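User: Design a sequence. Structure:
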């Protein structure tokens, strides 16, 4: 299973250093989710990360930066998706200059997985378990329904919400493409160590299958 780490919405001490260490440890993809950041502040954040990792970054805002820094992709927020026409034009513009740009979104119910979403390269489904980073954000999914949905959807779906080491087996059995980590990493006392443990678990499961 692939591993995505999503940045904390509010900056934490040593965050960029941790991001660099995670990339060095083999992180597949970083989603930069900073809703309160200006375009300039996002750029300052990115410029602290070595250029060789920029193609492993997806941004949730100020999407035109994806061209300037050759990012992997963009993530569409709920606000973006409400502006259907403007967002469609934006995607068309970005894709014209960067044909391999990935487009992702977040879903919160299973019905979304059956929508005609061919324009999305992958989606987040949350919260699969009770969230670690958002207090009171509880999962309402039935695991049997989840497994059925995973077997029928044509989308690549990443589980998010309450993803911990002891739940990786269950996520694999449900049929998810991968996992997205937030609180598991950013609330950890040893972020890189915990990431490596999860990475090793995913690798072992993949080998077993």
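Assistant: Done.
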């Amino acid at each position: 299973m692939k591993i995505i780490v999503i940045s904390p919405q509010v900056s934490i001490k040593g965050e960029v250093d941790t991001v660099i260490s995670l990339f060095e440890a083999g992180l597949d993809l970083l989603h930069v989710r900073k809703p309160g950041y200006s375009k300039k502040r996002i750029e300052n954040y990115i410029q602290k990360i070595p250029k060789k990792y920029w193609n492993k970054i997806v941004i949730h805002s100020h999407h035109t930066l994806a061209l300037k820094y050759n990012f992997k992709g963009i993530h569409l927020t709920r606000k973006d998706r409400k502006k259907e026409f403007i967002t469609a034009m934006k995607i068309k513009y970005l894709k014209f200059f960067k044909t391999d740009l990935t487009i992702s979104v977040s879903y919160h119910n299973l019905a979304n997985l059956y929508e005609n979403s061919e324009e999305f390269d992958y989606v987040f489904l949350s919260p699969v378990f009770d969230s670690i980073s958002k207090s009171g954000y509880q999962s309402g999914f039935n695991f049997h329904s989840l497994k059925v949905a995973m077997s029928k959807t044509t989308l690549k779906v990443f589980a998010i919400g309450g993803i911990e080491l002891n739940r990786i087996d269950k996520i694999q059995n449900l049929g998810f493409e991968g996992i997205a980590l937030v609180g598991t990493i950013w609330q950890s006392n040893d972020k890189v160590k915990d990431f490596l443990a999860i990475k090793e678990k995913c690798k072992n499961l993949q080998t077993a299958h």
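The mean pLDDT is 90. The chain has one domain: 2-208.
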